[in-house]
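Class prep. Write one:
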Amino acid sequence: MRTPINVAIDGPSGAGKSTMARLLAQQLGFVYVDTGAMYRSIGLYAKRAGIGLEEIEAIVPRLPEITIQLRYTDGVQHIFLNGEDVSEEIRTEIISRYASAVSTLAPVREYLLELQRGLARDHDVIMDGRDIGTVILPHAQVKIFLTASAEERARRRYQELLEKGQAVEYDQVYQDLLARDEKDTSRAAAPLKPAADAVQLNSTAYTLEETLERMKTIIGEKTQNVL
């Protein structure tokens, strides 16, 4: 029985990691693990509990109250928070800020670590986040650090939110993205940075299809003796 193949995709907010990971998993027959959705779910729990962003540490003693499950329906990942499907509710800008806040807390990261590694032990997975190749799956056969310019990432996020019917301003999306970049790269717990053996891919000038093909090529080259 061969060892499951693990693909780690890291990068800053708005780089397209989730979109790419989801498409790659569908085309390669891997399990897609959206780690950001896990942090968003904890952020949603904190917001519902009345915990403000300025007092986010208050979520730590409440972690035992939280159960997170990933389920797949017709190949689409749904995330459940204490039995409730919150796949749509976690995709708002306020929950993005909560996700960023809870992700700075070492106890939260430790809480999710075993869940994430367990999925990777049992399945061929594509996992995206900010510390997959450096912390969660340091022995992944494939590591890709996907990025783009801040302006392009903000434009993509702005379009995505508009398409979802959310009333947002580009300037606010851009400022939120810069703030998250700063928080992600400077946090004490698992800061955002490329793994030493990651392939870095800047998608600023690429279409979605071009980025997808480049990532498939990278995965193919890294796993040619395994797949």
Q: What stands out?
A: The chain has a mean pLDDT of 92. Residues 106-122 form the longest helix (17 residues).
